Known about the structure:
The protein is mainly α. The chain folds into two domains: about 25-60 and about 105-160 and about 165-200 and about 340-420, Orthogonal Bundle (Hypothetical protein af1432), CATH 1.10.3210; about 215-335, no CATH class. Helices cover about 55% and strands about 0% of the residues. The chain is built from 20 helices and two strands.
Amino acid sequence: MQNRFYQVFDTERASGYCPEGDFRSPFQIDRDRVLHTPAFRRLQSKTQVFWSGEYDFYRTRLTHSLEVAQIGKSICHWLKYSSDLLHDDFFVDEDLVEAICLSHDLGHPPFGHAGERSLNHFMAEYGGFEGNAQTLRLLTERIFSQTRKGMDPSRAFLDGVLKYKSLWSELKTTTGKLPKNHFLYDAQEKHLNWAMGENDFPAELVPGQVRDGFKSIECQIMDWADDTAYSLNDLADSVKAGFLTVERIERWAEKKGHGIEEGSPLRSLLKAIRGQRIEPFVGKQIGRFIKAAHLVTATNFLSATSHRYSLELVVDDEVRAESELFKDLAYEVVFLSPQLKQLEHKGSYMLRRLWEVLEKRYVLGETIDGQDFKLLPEADAAEIEAAESSEERARLVCDFLAGMTDGYAARTFRRLFEPGFGSIGDLVG
Length: 429
């Protein structure tokens, strides 16, 4: 039975390519292409909360993405089961949502958000760096083909990954400051326009948070699945790592004025920790968060073009507030702890030293101690040297650093800067 929710507009690819005779749907093809990319596999060694490789059971960007995909698919099942707006032949495609969820963190660099902030700082003169923008760059320009033309994603898939729809220069002009996050690169305007079907944003959708709130239903589902995983699964890792204890939670609750009375979210969390049942607690909460999602109709400048914009995901206020509470708890007690900040400082320091030497050698074209050292793999160096502008060269150097895993970045740092590490047999790539 054909799913009437999607039209040719949604399944179209920028190249115009339409696979014939493939037993898979266009969205299954998108998902399969993502799964078989090196960029996806590298997520297994990129930081989620704690540095990858610290212990086997902590979540990495890869396991986080897998969990987000599972939650996203479950939300699709729940909505099809519970909503009067969907039917057996008219529903949100779970393969599409799975592909979007699996891809949502592809562009994240090593060392978590500290690495993202560092690269954005380094790229301040060259158009900035943003994890979501880098995901778009990978999907449209960098992965899957030998010619580095991207994976030719369908419009619905590409649009579903676009959490942010404001350009770097737009935010810079609007605020008068260099954007800290939540932007696309200026050179990606063509991809944004294509995803929007070449329709201009109406005047009321000003750049920034207002425009970023304009998302397809699949992007909204991914966003809520990500929030669910972030606020609950990361919480479990923090408890297991000893960062979230009963005492610390109680002190934080008293300081912030949050109640821990019977029936409150924090009371339930404290009971789970005391009873050593944090995993069952998280599993039950995930189920609640999924069932808190509902659909309502929406009318906007794309709702007549695609059903993807004719629906809006609404989450019960109580559950949304609970998610925000748990995110605040994890951020203020765990992410801001001296232990994690020290590791973030170390990761940022390594990236800064790598950026400094690569920018000097490959972006500015200067010698290092009077010598033209070959510091990058041959193919990467050749592509950078063929670029016509310093902005293009900087972006390619940034691509190289952003694609590193935590371990690869640390090994490259040691190989370049620690006299006692490395040998002639080491491989750069």
